[in-house]
User: What shape does this take?
Amino acid sequence: LEEMTPRPVQDTGNVLKQGYLEKRSREHSFFGSEWQKRWCVLNRKTFYYYASEKSKQPKGTFPIEQYSARLASHLRKDSRRQCCFELTCPGKRTYEFTAPSPAEAEDWVDQIQFLLKDLSSPTIPCDEEDEEELYNDVDSSESVNTASHNTTLNQEDPNIEMEEEDIYEVLPGKQPKPE
Assistant: This one.
């Protein structure tokens, strides 16, 4: 197992979904298990949870890849049971959450399932091209962008030359200088 390096909320990469959820704690008290409000962030590979939106260090993280997500109304007996979902993975800890609303719980499950389907797909997601466009100043993608950018310019060169000839107005008594 590779170690997950803790990262501040702002540095978690491409955020797919984030928001406050109640997370069931692992320790069970005399009154049963406790639900704690946590700021949760899902990016392409990792699920992070923080004490609050402003926290610098996550309370916990786990790689999302082999987990599955599903609505889980059995987790609570109160009026918020329709807001519950769980993340499960054989041989690993199960994470249980309560969203602010049933629709929000469904959205978390949908986002996670979509991500998992994308991660298990044998094809390369087209998002990688988007990353190159978004991060033009990153050295690793600069050569790729420059190459495709030059190709685009070369295709347009004939049109640019024609436009340049048309935009100059010859004034009476002045001749354009030969190049």
In short: The longest strand covers residues 15-29. Residues 127-136, 140-164 have pLDDT under 50 and may be disordered. The two ends are 67 Å apart (CA to CA).
